[in-house]
Amino acid sequence: MKITKPLNLGLAALAGLAFACGGGEKSTETSTPAVTESKPAEPVQEMSLEEKYKDDPIYVKGIAKVKASDCTSCHMVERKIVGPSYADVAAKYESTDENITMLAEKVIAGGVGTWGEVPMPPHPNLSLEDAKDMVAYVLLLK
Ligand code: HEC
């Protein structure tokens, strides 16, 4: 009895606080993604994408060209920095010839608006072949 009473009071105070901060509904909404995010513990997640594909010829060829260019200053494999992460790009596009060509042309011409307001600068010195090898590597990373 002595324990439950102050606890109830505490909960009531918390509920009051949540209301004070702009409505109970919103506060439950924001707490939901945090709960679902910690749920999936699939073994796939334990191996980094780099590890997973490091022996794939598309990976080996593509990463060499990506590293020789400026891509890594704006893109990381699994984290968004200036540009989207390669994993996010790979999740968005299927690895088809059409998509590889379309994205390679975008890397060469530059572009904006697909991922936000920040533009990707053009890479006019890249050949279409090199850009396609890079994009094929990017789209592998899923
Ligand atoms: C100065 C920063 C910067 C550099 C350097 C850069 N990118 Fe990007 N990249 C971006 C940004 C920002 C976007 C998102 C553009 C958009 O929203 O349309 C992007 C988007 C992309 C996309 C997805 C395009 C789409 O339409 O979904 C690919 C693929 C890509 N970059 C590959 C590369 C490759 C390969 C290189 C190296 C040759 C490179 N990027 C260099 C900033 C950069």
From TrEMBL:
> Region labeled Disordered — which residues?
26-49
Q: Which Pfam families match?
A: Cytochrom_C (PF00034)
* PROSITE patterns given in the database record: CYTC, PROKAR_LIPOPROTEIN
Q: What keywords were assigned to this record?
A: Electron transport, Heme, Iron, Metal-binding, Signal, Transport
**Signal sequence bounds:** 1-20
Q: Which residues bind heme c?
A: C71, H75, M120
Q: Name it.
A: Cytochrome c
The organism encoding this protein is Algoriphagus halophilus
